[in-house]
User: Fold these one by one.
Assistant:
Number 1:
Amino acid sequence: MELGLRGRTAVVTGGSLGIGRAIARKLAQEGVAVAIVARDASRLDAAAAEIARETNARCIAIPADLTDAAQLEAAMAAAQAGLGSIDILVNNAGATPMGRIGGTPDEVWMKSINLKLMGYMRCARILTPPMRARRWGRVINIIGRSGHQPRPNYITGSAVNASLLSFTLALAAECAPDNVLVTGVNPGPIATPRWDTVVAQGAADMGRSAEAENAAAVASVALGRVGTPEECSGLVAFLCSDRAGFITGTNIDIDGGGTRCI
């Protein structure tokens, strides 16, 4: 399907691995020039080089720790300097560890809030005003289904994700009059290095093997399997296109039917 994205520009945070990398690759395949942002400079450079080689699109690497407001601002400035006006922002950087309230110190809460909630907000605060001035833009927030299916052993992530569900809808309402569309995407179990970490942490909390923890997660999915990063990236590319021009202010689950709340 031709999505009409050729010539657009995008920033993808957390773009060196997993879902973020798959999104950056998919956008590049659609002819989008992409800036990927992450902390690990060597891994980021390798990802950018691979995406550019595979797609013949421009992909630049911008290393930054997005928990640091100054580094985040510098990264957004570098993306604008390297690509010009940014049309698409995919907020994806943010991995909150598993943990219950008694075993989760303030430092973990604050790191998670600064990276994911504040990181998403700061990127949007910088990039949406020029989008609104041009009357075209897309913000896709990769959040997670724990925001509306909270778990006691993922209490920090559940709270931060719930905040981002609300943030997404509020930002969408503000930006809609200027044709800047804001949508949340909630992945369920997706086969990435991040998922392996979540499984290991969950297994330790439940006192069982990683294999048993993964099997329990799969059993909660109606389709009976873990998803792939590409099953997320295709939806994100569609949401970035004019084919999705009447979709904003909503959160979409990609979880194989695992979310059963109304």
Number 2:
Amino acid sequence: MTHPTTPAAAGTGMALPAALYLDLVQIHSTPYASDNRDRNGSPKSALYGAALRARLSSQHQRHHDRRAVQQLLGVHAYRTRTTTLEAVKDLTGRGWARDEALTAVQMLILATGIKGLGITDNGGTNALLFLPPAAITELADLAHQHRDDFAPHIAAAHTALAKEIKKKPATDDDTEAPADAADGEVAEDANRTNVLTAQAKKITASKTGFLTKEHVLRILRTRNAIVAAYGRMLANEPGSTVESAIQTAHALSTHAITTQIDSFTAVDDMIKELGDASGAGFLGEQRYNSATFYRYSTLNVTKLLDNLAGPKDAAQATARDTAEAFLRASCAPRNAGKVSGTAPHTLPHLMYAAVRTDRPVNLVGAFEEPVPATAAGGYLAASMARLNAHAGATHRFLGTGRIAGHAHLTLADDQTFPHLGERVESLEEFVATTLATIDKARG
């Protein structure tokens, strides 16, 4: 069977694979810790293979990985509801009054006409916007460029908002919030959004307006390497949506776990030194577990290239840098929950990277049956052996013709993993070998 390909790259005479995926797998032992907690403060868990497993949510991992990738690349994007407030800071630095700047920027956002996108009582947006820093500057630039045009609309909006405030019924006791305070705040948010939306429609009116929706939508559609890698979704605005090139699975322990309860005390230093009393200043309970995790993520190199704007050569260079950051970020330190009292800064015992030209392959099926502890104790050796065996079964099932190359890095000196490709001896070699495979596969 021949591999599906795209047309030959200009001037190279070589056909590129239609798809190129970088799969990254880790076996990672963590100590007594609470890295990722649920709303009750317990370590997150999941049922898999009819057994309770420790879990690190994909959102938790992506957040930490994205921060590491940003630091490594020196490129940032911010997922926040405070885009408007950041643009206001820029404008006040240019001499705008805060109320004037806030109203102008909010009207710009509402001028997009995106259904459901509104303003909250703190001045931010009710939806998270994921944008590069340059987009916030562009938003401020657009407002500043049309400052005189905005002036009558700002005045009209402030007059309308003052009338809305007068309509609000007074309460007998201003020191106590009414029982439906939350509903009242929502109503106030809606009122402000409605008033500003009415003015925003005049700003973009076809005959009298000085802006179009596209002026602002172009800014909300701005992307960089981080947005291209991690994707973006803005409801009811498909033009801003970017399909993520990186997919991350929930990390699961390779074995069944039991949550452990720690009854802890906090000593009152002053009382203890004075000897006036015995006992603790505070008593409490915290839940922890210890686990050997299977972690999996995949980078669609082809999708990343599609997502990147600009000249082809620049996009290819950025994609390569992003792939390198993706590999290195998986081994970066994480600011885990309860980190001060657990310091769970361990390294993965095994990292496996496979560059494929057909599809991504998650090897979690190796652990559908929980790994039992070995006679000597622990789960690491058995987990790594199970992963190697399952990779071999996968190779028999799919064949190896679509694996452009694969390699592994391990702390285990007494085990071999023949189904995990070439063994390398350092993170630097692991990254270099994988990137060389991607370069070769891309021609």
Number 3:
Amino acid sequence: MIPELRRRAYLSAMQVANWLPRVALPFAAPSRPELLEPLEEPSIDAQPQATAAPEPSAVAEPPAVARPRVEVPRPKSQERNPRPVVSDEEQTSSAEVKPATEPPPRFALQLLRAGSCAVLVELPTGEPLQGRDPAYLLLKDLLRAAGLPDSPHMIGQPVRWPLLARGNMDQGPAAALEFVQSFVAARLEEQEPCTCLWLVGLPAIRFAGEADAVDYNRELQIDGIGSAWAVPGLELLMDEPARKADLWQAMRRVSQRWMSQPE
């Protein structure tokens, strides 16, 4: 037989709150009188008829004791790395603050003088025009048809853009426009008065006359330079001969500016 204290420890471990021994136990505490009283049997009328009485089990199981559940807080992924919410207005304003930088245009131009007219011509290969180049032969034909000397002489060195291969200097379209116009105006001031400036090729029209391809064969007015005439590029005229018809018609109209001028 085990002592009373150890017996109570075993019963507590088995979750037995009340128990009654069948025989007197040595070294046991006296039983409480209220535990020896018989239990009252419940009346039949007190139980609901629809509920069936559970079958008694052979061995009475101790009641389960609910253990307290400890919740451990876990940080969420969104709280660990919160992402700032940017509105559409903020995105638009940031895009306006940092405008995209336009790449520098690439072209080569040569300024020539033929009689009372100056010619700013695009160099198709980037090098000065040579006597046997097809583009130069076409230019001579255009000057001859316009009643101008067909052997123009160069004014200054060719203008090649961009000016620098490296560096932080702005070489975008706006800078190219300002440079070409300043260059042409300065070179023409050193020459005799110019009746009309031929702009041959899209780069010459765009960066000296502030015009575009829609202005082919039209007359232009350039601040600080004067009257100009937009002519398609020499290579474009060779690739698309049908453009020459519109060019001849425009030449008959524009040539009145220099036909009366001495060479």
